[in-house]
Specification:
A: about 425 residues, alpha+beta, Cytochrome-c3 Hydrogenase, chain B, three-stranded antiparallel sheet, 17 helices, 8 strands, B: about 160 residues, 2 domains, two-stranded antiparallel sheet, about 15% strand, elongated, binds iron/sulfur cluster
């Protein structure tokens, strides 16, 4: 199928004459405030009867200036901005940002830190996928599935709260490490969740897989071809649902993913159903990855031993003798003009977030603050392929399609 | 609409004539859905009756701030401004003055945190070299005006 660029149509409703109802084209506005958009998005559609003939997207309703704000923060402070961009899996954004800064500065994190990050990353993927499947079901009428998904997500958020101290605004990672070590009961807590999570996912799957309404409204809906998906730059479950085994965890491993055994899930369909299947199967896959990491959870320090990047622990400060040096590094870390300064240059680091490739592009001018802090949010790329998927389909399929994209408006607008 | 290249994976499709017919009838899925709902009805509740039952947060939760005091009841803060520098939300405002105690030079005269701007990131706690400020487990904040949300030194000490 050739690429079709949807264009903006003049916003006028054609005059309708009696007896001519529905034969003329009609313009319908979807969003920006609509329960099914799961965020503030706007789509302007031209309909012929029920069939969508053209569609135009408008974004910017949730523009918060995240990138600009971050350019006025020091590198470690920007982590607080990153978790606000994605309200379904903030820890993935935290980890992605820290990995990018570490790549820029040539830091390798300790094995324990990498293990903690991988576990939290995969838990966030589960939280994201489980809720997005639940919301997809809710949009198609199965409300209770969403509530079950929510119960599971609450358990996950309890784990995040125990580890990071906040449920959503986690701000957990730091350059070269994490904010603090995980609590003593972290491993039993996660293990308990793995069992519960598997069970609930199986339940949800059991409810949806043979539910005729759900299946009929998913199969063949919002289809996109492999070639179009690649040329639009789709990543993550969207691309894997077109049968392309593209997964950055496999292709450019980071944080020790090369040592873990997991399958890159693909489905051949390219439609809403295939995306649903990819997400559900990835939940199991993520839980398997977590089990592997927990089976061999490394001991040792969580932070790298670089006092110019990581502040020394408080006990080192109060310790007489070794205390003065620690105190100097502590002060230098925070004083203007003395803190952590990556050498001038630029870096791009992509990680496989639940929705696709989450990339951070940072430009340093050799000061404490990034000169440019740019995010490649997967939602932005996934959303621009949306008109292509909707053309020729009926209006009601817009809803199931949009929930299968799992757009995070905060990341889309930044 | 479903031409063959558009249909998704077939691994979960019912096999055999009987199973396919049952799926088309929709009755088995309704029944199994009802069964699941009944099951959830007798499971423990996932919700809390909030104002009556309060959620207990774990130690390490990042809630309201507290300025710590030492054993003699003197505040530990030495007005070094580290927390103010580290704060990404720029919500701490310190006024320093001479210290009434001989073992340090400075002490804060006023220490204000704008709780409406604060994002509870805990970076002030991390930055403090004297362990003088910490985030408590209090997550409820009630006030009737904006002025009340700017916590001053007395409020922070008594937290
Ligand atoms: S918690 Fe964060 S935002 Fe709030 S005062 Fe401390 S450093 Fe500032
Ligand atoms: S960092 Fe600690 S000692 Fe320094 S001003 Fe802040 S609270 Fe006081």
């Amino acid at each position: 199928m050739a690429m079709q660029r949807p264009t903006r149509l003049p916003m006028e409703v054609e005059e309708q004459t009696e007896g001519d109802l529905g034969s003329k084209r009609m313009i319908v506005n979807f969003g920006p405030q609509h329960p099914a958009t799961h965020g503030t998005l706007r789509a302007i559609m031209e309909l012929e009867g029920e069939i969508i003939r053209s569609m135009d997207l408008e974004i910017g309703y949730l523009h918060s200036g995240f990138e600009k704000i971050s350019e006025h923060r020091t590198y470690n402070q920007t982590v607080t901005v990153s978790d606000r961009m994605n309200y379904l899996s903030p820890l993935c954004n935290n980890v992605g940002l820290s990995c990018a800064i570490e790549k820029m500065m040539g830091i390798t994190v300790t094995p324990r830190c990498a293990a903690i990050r991988v576990v939290l990353y995969e838990l966030s993927r589960v939280a994201d996928h489980i809720l997005s499947v639940g919301l997809q079901a809710m949009d198609l009428g199965a409300f209770s599935v969403m509530l079950w998904a929510f119960i599971e997500r609450e358990k996950l958020y309890d784990i995040f709260e125990a580890v990071t101290g906040a449920r959503l605004t986690t701000s957990y990672t730091r350059v070269g490490g994490v904010m603090r070590d995980v609590p003593a009961d972290f491993i039993p807590m996660v293990k308990a969740f793995i069992d519960a999570g598997r069970k609930t996912t199986r339940e949800m799957e059991g409810m949806l897989n043979t539910n005729r309404i759900f299946v009929d409204r998913c199969k063949g809906v919002n289809w996109i071809s492999k070639e179009d998906a690649i040329s639009y730059g789709l990543t993550g479950p969207m691309l894997r649902a077109c049968g392309v085994p593209h997964d950055l965890r496999r292709l450019q491993p980071y944080l020790g993913y090369e040592k873990l055994k997991f399958d890159v899930i693909t489905e051949p369909g390219g439609d809403v159903w295939a995306r649903y299947r990819v997400r559900v199967r990835e939940i199991y896959e993520s839980l398997d990855i977590i089990e592997q990491v927990l089976a061999d959870f490394p001991e040792g320090p969580v932070n790298v031993d670089m006092p110019e990047v990581i502040i020394p622990t408080k006990t080192a400060l109060n310790n007489p003798g070794g205390g003065m040096e620690g105190l100097i590094y502590h002060f230098k870390n925070y004083m203007f003009g003395h803190g952590m300064k990556p050498a001038a240059g630029e870096v791009y680091m992509g990680t496989e977030a639940p929705n696709g490739e989450l990339g951070y592009f940072l430009v340093s001018d050799g000061t404490q603050k990034p000169w440019r802090w740019r995010v490649r949010g997967p939602s932005f790329y996934n959303y621009q392929a949306f008109p292509q998927m909707c053309l020729g389909q009926s209006l009601s399929d817009v809803v199931s399609g949009l929930s299968s994209l799992n757009i995070i408006a905060g990341e889309l607008d930044r | 609409m479903a031409n063959d290249d558009r249909v998704g994976s077939r691994d979960v499709e019912p096999k055999g004539f009987l199973a396919k017919t049952l799926m088309k009838l929709y009755v088995p899925s309704v029944l199994s859905g009802m069964k699941k709902t009944m099951e959830y009805m007798i499971r423990p509740k996932a919700t809390l009756q909030y104002p009556e039952v309060k959620r207990v947060t774990r130690k390490g939760y990042r809630g309201e701030h507290r300025l710590k005091q030492d054993e003699q009841g003197r505040m530990k803060c030495v007005a070094c401004f580290m927390c103010q520098t580290a704060c990404p939300a720029e919500c701490i405002e310190i006024t320093a003055g001479p210290s009434p105690w001989p073992d340090r030079d400075k002490a804060p005269v006023q220490f204000r945190i704008d709780m409406m701007k604060c994002i509870y990131c805990g970076m002030c706690e991390e930055a403090c070299p004297c362990d003088a400020i910490e985030l408590t487990e209090t997550y409820t904040q009630v006030s009737t005006s904006r002025e009340e949300k700017i916590y001053d030194i007395n409020r922070l000490l008594s937290n």
